[in-house]
Protein: Metapyrocatechase
Organism: Pseudonocardia parietis
Amino acid sequence: MSTATEPATSTVEYVEVTTPRVHNLHHVEVFTPKPEESLDFFTRVLGLHETHREGQSVYLRACGEWGRYSTVLTEAAQPGLGHMAWQVAEPDQVEGWARRLKDAGVEHKLEAGGSSAFAQGDTLSFTGPFGHRTELFYDFERYEPADPSKLLSQPIKFPMPGIGARRLDHLNITARNVDEARDWYSDVLGFKLREAARTPEGDLGVWMSVSSQVHDLAIMRDGMGERGRLHHIAYCLDTPETLLRAADMFVEEGTPIDAGPGKHGLTQAFFIYVFEPGGNRVELFAGGYPIHGPDWKPVIWDGANIEKAVVWYGGQLPDTFFNVAT
């Protein structure tokens, strides 16, 4: 004869997780001393759309993006990075990040939505350990096309103009000490190390992310001084074949190609790098791979493997790739 038993009572206390989290790269501001030429490149050649002008800045979005902008071109005496902006995971996490940065001893400024940044909400701004200005926010205005696509998950109609860059993909910055930068972005901002090029003297470069992408942020060693620089910004293309068509267009346009087309072992990316008229390096990126599991073990390229990490196939990268940044 069987007897019924009472279900076990759980003794686990569930605690709401309130730790703030950086969710995704939203936009970058790029300085250019040639604003009209840069604007022509980003719109007519890459295929970005102008959505707003304010002061010395022009706001652009790629064809597959739902935000009002992902790229800001700002006129300046020298090329480089104005700031990078990351969206946080929840609305109340902007203030959460302010408390966390205070505890970490990071100077910061919290400003109400609309007071300083176009089309975005409350914004927390600070400077990273090697001089890169950074913003964290949650709210932003969505793009509302005047003549939307019938494909409801696509903001604009086909065909795409120019090369047809789909979206801002990632950002590559430089630091004098990559190990220090890696640890700061991991310990303070919660970035996860995905891949690294490592030597006995320390990391030459690291590829980190806050999303399921193999990298949202890369950091490369820079021997030019204490202050970090911008190595490149990258836009995603649909396929490697689209990247080859982009190479044809760059040659036709007379756009200087810095490296590629080729494939990195790191991130499994098909790549081509060019310099836009203002002097900043731009990568067009296809491929890569997603990371879904929370227990990802970073891929470390070292010793003889580093050569294949840099170029899996294609021509070797020129010296400019390793010593030119803005």
